[in-house]
Amino acid sequence: MERKSSDRKARAPSGAAVQKIELTEALYRALFFEWAEHGFSALSLERVAARAGAGKAAIYRRWPGKLQFADEAVNALGLKMAAFGDKGSLEADIRAFHRRLRIVFRHPVVRKILPDIYAEAARSDEMKAISDRVAQTRRDEAKKVIDRAISRGELPEAIDRDIALDFLPSSIYWRMVVIKSSLSEAQLRLHAQGTTAALKSLW
Fold first, then answer.
1. What is the pLDDT of residues 118-169, one digit of tens each?
2. pLDDT, average across residues 99-123
3. Structural domains of the chain sorted by starting position, each given as residue range(s) with its CATH number in brackets
4. Which of 95, 122, 154, 173 is spaced 20 to 30 A from 89 at the CA atom?
5. Torsion, CA 103, CA 108, CA 111, CA 113, rounded to 10
6. Which residues contact residue 91 at a Cβ distance below 8 angstroms, ignoring those fewer than 6 apart?
7. How far is the C-alpha of 203 from the C-alpha of 200, rounded, in Å?
């Protein structure tokens, strides 16, 4: 008897599918570690594949080249700053957003890769496109914080959203990526308070 389409859709992934997902994630991790150690310009796909316990063909079955591989891997990393629910106030939302950034920025590999992305973006239009997409992912999530604050009446509809979006991640990025300092929960709270005051001063 023929199976219903709903039954086929509900079927769990096969062992081969799970292995492919696990290998893709292993390749992402290997890429980031190699990138952090050698920089993008000196990145070797052979070393990446070997580090992931795979052959170079495993990379080319997924991506046509190094830039496309990096683009997808960086986008997957950017999704770690995924959406969070309404925390009830502008300051609480900013604190939650900062906490997401801290999770990403505190990783030593990320701290090395991000400055290298920006350096490469200054020399390569292709890498600039990747960098722009990373920035847009972060700004799309930050925009939800601004929109919720406007709907609550905490910020005016006429606020300059571009400037507001510049404010949201800046102090966290400066502290954790530029000067490579840690950020405690108490300091995170102070950054949220300061950012909230700065946004409200844009009235």
1. 999 999 999 999 889 888 888 888 899 999 999 999 999 999 999 999 999 9
2. 89
3. 13-62 (1.10.10), 77-200 (1.10.357.10)
4. 173
5. -110
6. 192, 193, 196
7. 6
Residue type, 184: S
Tell me the residue type at 132.
D
What is the C-alpha separation between 78 and 40, in angstroms, rounded? 18
SS (H, E, C) 16-58: HHHHHHHHHHHHHHHHHHHHHHHCCCCCCHHHHHHHCCCCHHH
pLDDT of residue 82: 56
The dihedral built from the CA positions of residue 196, 197, 198 and 203, taken in this order, carries a sign that is positive
Stretch 76-87: mean pLDDT: 69
Mean pLDDT of the region 185-195: 96
Unique residue bearing structure tokens 């495993």: 58
